[in-house]
Each structure stands twice: as structure tokens, then as C-alpha cells.
Design goal:
With about 425 residues, this protein is an all-alpha fold. It is about 75% helix and about 0% strand. It has one domain (about 40-425).
Length: about 425
């Protein structure tokens, strides 16, 4: 490791530790690196602009963010919630099941865990805690846990970011995320059913069967979002980026014209909020581009690859170590930083060891999502605390069982790659 790189890393971690956003910390560290190394410090801006300009697929990120905010901004949420209540609300721990199923459905529209937690999650928590039917901490915990499904099932913003750093197909990554998302939903519903029986949580009054068709019809246009997205990509009609634009237009059509759930004033506020969120993600992406350039310039991926191959590490052992590392890092770093900054270091090693990059990418994304609910800095815990006022102490005391089953699901996915790869292989993925 060169002195310039060491000074760069000290600057980054020092500034991040002082509270500076990680994107700005990385940019500052890169300026230090180029300055001390006698290079043109303008390279920082040049590499960021080049990276953003060449990555057409990154346009999908602000588009998916906008689509999520539009879907959360109107009565679309209410219609989908009513549908979920009609389907699973009658079972023991019904609203807990509704929470998970709603996340499974909303994941096909937002691609964002934070959007799911702050939008539909807030509504469900209110329903669960009404009249003391569920403990506040439990309602918040299962909401946070189920929100992790959002970025797994397509569309998925973290999958888009991973495709950029690994040169993997977004389409196959989207397909590979469907089964893991379902598995995560299943284990969360199993744990909810178990805890609901142990704690004797209330069961909701079943929705009369005669009302189910009407509820389904009202929710059906919103339920079509994932189908439209995947049909566009795999029907050869659109690129993933164009599909993201269509998803945004479709959300706008539903909210403004079909359901008439948004005013132009609220739409303006949604667009402003989406622009702010996109800018925040863009800063991290820009920082990642320049840091990756520095890492490659220092030849670190090659050194790491040669070292691990020299140790004759079994691919499964490598996956176990990397997943443990990502799980630990997830306690302190956000998912975007992990995927854009940390994961690229291991891509060459994966290739050398014969590890499928689609399988690896899904594992990393699932692991990063678990990090969103892992104390002490799980961002979803803070989001739910902010929108509901439920204390972090209450949430954290109830979150551990859900973290446990999600880690168990992650281990199963790691040991059985076919669970992830069988659907992409049906559509022609060759590995």
C-alpha cells in the first residue's frame, strides 16, 4: 500500500467518522491522493463525470425512486393494503402477514427499502398498534424486516448498482432476485405466525368472500407494475433503463388519471423529494467511481486475487468469509457504499474462483439489506423511528428474531445457488 493511498483512506475514514457524508469524504480523500501523488487533482471531477456519463443504466436509479414516491403518494397504497388484508388478514397474526405480503407487492414497484418503510410501512404500523393489538416495538420490527424485501424483487436499485460495478446483466439479476425475495417473505411470515401464537396476538375479522373480487379489481392495475417491467425487458421491447422510465410513467398514469390520487402540488413535492434522494445516491455513486479508479491504479484487486488464490481457498469458504464481512460492515455502512466501494474489490476473486457473479450479486444485496436493520446503525430502524415516534429501544428489542431468520435464509441461498439461478437459466442465462 502506497503512502498516498494510506493518506487517502485515513482522510476518508476520518471525515466519515466526523459525520461528513461518505460521498463527500471519498471525494476529499481522492483529492488528497492525487495532490500528494503529484497528479492533477482535477482527475477527481473528470473520473466522476466519465463514470456517470458512460453508465447509461444509472438513469434507472432516479426513475425507480420517482416511481416509488409516486406510488406511495396516493390512494394506490390503500388499495394494495386492502388487497393484502383480504388475502392473508384472516390468519393468526394477520396484520403481520399483511405487512410482509405488502412489502412483497410494493417491492415490485419501488426497489427501495426506505420507500417501503416510510410509505406503506407507516400505515401498517398504525393499523397494527391501534387499540393495542400488537406491541409498538413488534409492529415496527416486522415492518423494518419486511422492508428489506423491497430491493430484492425487481425493480431493484441495489441490483442496478451491482450490475454497474460487475458488468452483470440487470435483466438476469432482476430475475435472480425473485425467488430470494419470496424465501425472505416466507421465513418472516413463519416467524410472525410463531410469535403471534406464542403471544396470542389478535386475529383480524375475515373479509367476506363476496367483497374479494371487487378489492382485487381495484388493486389490479397497481399489481401489474412488476409484470409490465419484466415483460418489457424480457420481451425485447425495452432496455432496463427504458423499462424504469415506463414504470415511472405508469405510476404517474395510475396516480393522476386512473385513481386521481395526486394533485399537481403534491406531484411537485414528490418530484422535488425524488430529486433530493437521487442527488444523495448520485454523490455516493460519484465517490465510488473515483475510489474504484484509485483502487485499480494501486492494483489492489489483482494483489487480493493472487493472495486468495495462493491460499487455495474453497469457493464456499470465500463466500462465507465475504458474507460475514458484509454482514459486519452492514452494521456501520449503508448498502450503497458497500456495493459500490467494497464489493468491487472481490469481483476479480469471484471470477478466479469460478463463483457465478449473478449468485454472488444477489447474496451481497440480500446481505446488505439485512444490514439495514442491524443495530447500531441500521438505517431502517432510524427511518421507522422518525416516521412513527416508536423508540429505537423498543424496535431493537424485537428485531433480533427477524434478523436471525433472514440470516438463515441467506445461508440457504449461499449453499444452494440453484435457488437463485434457476429462473435466469430458464430465460437463457448460461453462467
Amino acid at each position: 500500500m502506497s503512502f498516498e493511498l494510506l493518506l487517502c483512506l485515513v482522510t476518508i475514514f476520518g471525515l466519515a467518522g466526523m459525520g461528513l457524508p461518505i460521498g463527500y469524504a471519498i471525494m476529499t480523500g481522492s483529492i488528497v491522493y492525487f495532490g500528494v501523488g503529484g497528479m492533477d487533482m482535477a482527475l477527481t471531477g473528470e473520473k466522476i463525470i466519465q463514470g456517470l456519463y458512460k453508465s447509461f443504466v444509472l438513469l434507472a436509479v432516479p426513475l425507480f425512486i420517482t416511481a416509488a414516491n409516486i406510488m406511495n403518494g396516493g390512494s394506490i397504497t390503500d388499495r394494495l393494503l386492502n388487497f393484502c388484508i383480504a388475502v392473508v388478514g384472516r390468519f393468526k397474526g394477520g396484520l403481520g402477514h399483511v405487512n410482509v405480503v405488502a412489502s412483497l407487492i410494493f417491492s415490485g414497484m419501488s426497489g427501495s427499502a426506505v420507500a417501503d418503510a416510510a410509505g406503506v410501512g407507516k400505515l401498517i404500523i398504525g393499523m397494527m398498534t391501534k387499540d393495542g393489538r400488537y406491541k409498538r416495538g413488534y409492529a415496527a420490527a416486522i415492518t423494518a424486516a419486511s422492508a428489506t424485501i423491497g430491493p430484492i424483487i425487481p425493480p431493484s436499485i441495489p441490483m442496478v448498482l451491482y450490475s454497474v460495478v460487475s458488468n452483470s446483466s440487470i435483466g438476469y439479476l432482476f430475475l435472480a432476485g425473485i425467488m430470494p425475495g419470496i424465501i425472505m417473505g416466507f421465513v418472516l411470515m413463519f416467524m410472525n405466525a410463531y410469535l403471534s401464537s406464542r403471544r396470542n396476538f389478535a386475529t383480524e375479522d375475515p373479509v367476506p368472500l363476496r367483497e374479494v373480487p371487487g378489492i382485487t379489481v381495484r388493486a389490479f392495475p397497481a399489481l401489474l407494475m412488476p409484470a409490465i417491467l419484466l415483460f418489457g425487458i424480457y420481451g425485447g421491447i425495452t432496455t432496463p433503463t427504458e423499462a424504469a422510465a415506463i414504470a415511472t410513467l405508469y405510476a404517474l398514469f395510475l396516480a393522476l388519471l386512473l385513481y386521481r390520487a395526486l394533485s399537481f402540488k403534491s406531484l411537485y413535492e414528490i418530484l422535488v423529494d425524488s430529486a433530493r434522494s437521487s442527488a444523495a445516491v448520485g454523490v455516493v455513486i460519484g465517490g465510488a467511481f473515483i475510489l474504484n479508479y484509485i483502487v485499480i491504479s494501486e492494483n489492489i484487486p489483482s494483489y487480493m486475487s493472487e493472495f486468495l488464490i495462493g491460499l487455495d481457498v474453497h469457493p464456499l469458504i470465500f463466500l462465507l468469509v465475504i458474507n460475514l464481512l458484509v454482514l459486519i460492515l452492514g452494521c456501520f455502512l449503508d448498502a450503497t457504499t458497500i456495493i459500490l466501494v467494497i464489493v468491487p474489490l472481490f469481483i476479480p476473486v469471484c471470477k478466479a474462483l469460478g463463483i457465478d457473479l449473478i449468485h454472488f450479486g444477489v447474496l451481497v444485496v440480500v446481505n446488505s439489506m439485512i444490514g439495514l436493520i442491524t443495530p447500531p446503525y441500521g438505517i431502517l430502524l432510524f427511518v421507522i423511528n422518525a416516521v412513527t415516534g416508536i423508540s429505537l429501544k423498543e424496535i431493537i428489542s424485537e428485531i433480533w428474531m427477524f434478523i436471525g431468520v433472514l440470516i438463515l435464509a441467506l445461508i440457504v441461498m449461499m449453499l444452494f445457488p440453484e435457488l437463485i439461478l434457476w429462473l435466469p437459466e430458464i430465460f437463457g442465462y448460461k453462467g
